[in-house]
Structure formats: structure tokens, C-alpha cells
Amino acid sequence: MTRSADHPIHPQFLTRHSPRAFAEAQVSDAQMLQLLEAARWAPSASNNQPWRAAYGLRGDAGFEKIAAALNEGNRIWAGRAAGLIAWASRSFVTRAGADVPNAWAAFDAGTAWGFLALQAQDMGLFAHAMGGFDAAALAQSLDMPQDFQLHAVIAVGAQGSPETLPEDKRAGEAPNGRNPVAAWAAKGGFA
Ligand SMILES: Cc1cc2nc3c(=O)[nH]c(=O)nc-3n(C[C@H](O)[C@H](O)[C@H](O)COP(=O)(O)O)c2cc1C
Questions:
Q1: Could you tell me the residue range of the domain that residue 95 belongs to?
Q2: Is residue 131 in a domain?
Q3: How confident is the chain (191 residues) per 10-residue block, as mean pLDDT?
Q4: Does 56 fall in a domain?
Q5: Residue 111 Cα to ligand 1 middle (Å)
């Protein structure tokens, strides 16, 4: 489908989407740092910046660790990505030497991932988040501290041909739609 907005918005919000077919092209360390830099500037509660990431580029050990934790249905396409990022947040903040729960950690990590996804698009890449992975296995293989929570694995790279995907996944390459604003937002109270 062709996406269109009901109210005028920056076109980046319509053109960003989550295909699965990756091109062979590698992502460089510098490009990965550009993606993470965009996430760096996300807003967060008390500017705590609770997001945490561990990443690998195709062919390195970090990439293999993250790919190994993906569900089979994700590994089949995301294993061809140029980069994989484990996206997490620290669930506590340290105040006056004591760790207290940060109720906004997941909210803030989500904002930061969104910034990364828009930066990827601006660089001619795409970023596809996945919740389908073995969180316990990934936490262990990446030596994740106990006070972090894993949210997603993000695959990044340049878009490739749908032919590289198993047949049942090719239809999903087309951008999908959204519920209208009125379905989830209302003036004066929840819809
Ligand atoms: C937290 C999260 C988890 C997701 N998990 C998966 C996943 O495990 N596998 C997958 O193929 N896509 C996954 N997706 C992608 C969504 O299906 C996709 O973002 C959604 O359909 C909207 O499509 P769009 O990103 O192309 O606009 C996930 C997205 C998010 C944000």
C-alpha cells in the first residue's frame, strides 16, 4: 500500500518502515555510531538516558551472539542484516548513592529507538525492531548487568531484493497502514 497521512506531517514518518530483505552492503563502524548518536539525543525522564545497547556487525562475534538468540522466524532474515543491536535500558537510577526504580526506562528506550530508526532512514538504511528473541540467552551471551531489561533486537542495513526472503515473507515488504488518530486519541478524555 501507499501510505498517506490524514493530517500534514514530515514525510519521514510515512517513508520509515520495517522491511526484512537486506542488501549485501555492510554498515561501517562509523555508520553504526551515527545511528547510535541519533538515539543519544532522545529526551528522557530527568535526562537519565537509561537506554543501553550492545551491537555487532555482520561477520563479528557480537553479531553472531545476537543472531543466535533470535527466534528462527526472525533469524532467517535478520541473520542477513548488516548490523544487529540488542536494545535495553537500565531499570534503576542512582540517587544519593541508592538505586531507585526508574519507572520511565522503557518509555525512554522506546523514544531512543525511534530516533535511531529515523536516522537510519535518513542515511538510506532501515532499522527493523524485533521482540522475537530469547531474552535470557541474549542477556547471558552479552554479559548484560542484572539491572538492565532487554526490549528488542534491532536489525539494520540497506534494503535488498524481496527475492532473498522465503516466499511467505515477501508480501510483508510493502509498507503497512495505521488506525486513524480518532481511534486512539480524543479531546477531553480517552477514546
Ligand atoms: C517492539 C517491536 C517488536 C517487534 N517484533 C518483531 C518481530 O519479532 N519480528 C518481525 O518481523 N517484526 C517485528 N516488529 C516489526 C513490527 O511488526 C512493525 O514495526 C509493525 O508491523 C509496523 O510496521 P512498520 O515498522 O513497517 O511501519 C516489531 C516491532 C517493534 C517496535
A1: 34-160
A2: yes
A3: 95 97 97 99 98 98 98 97 98 95 98 98 98 98 98 98 92 94 98 86
A4: yes
A5: 15
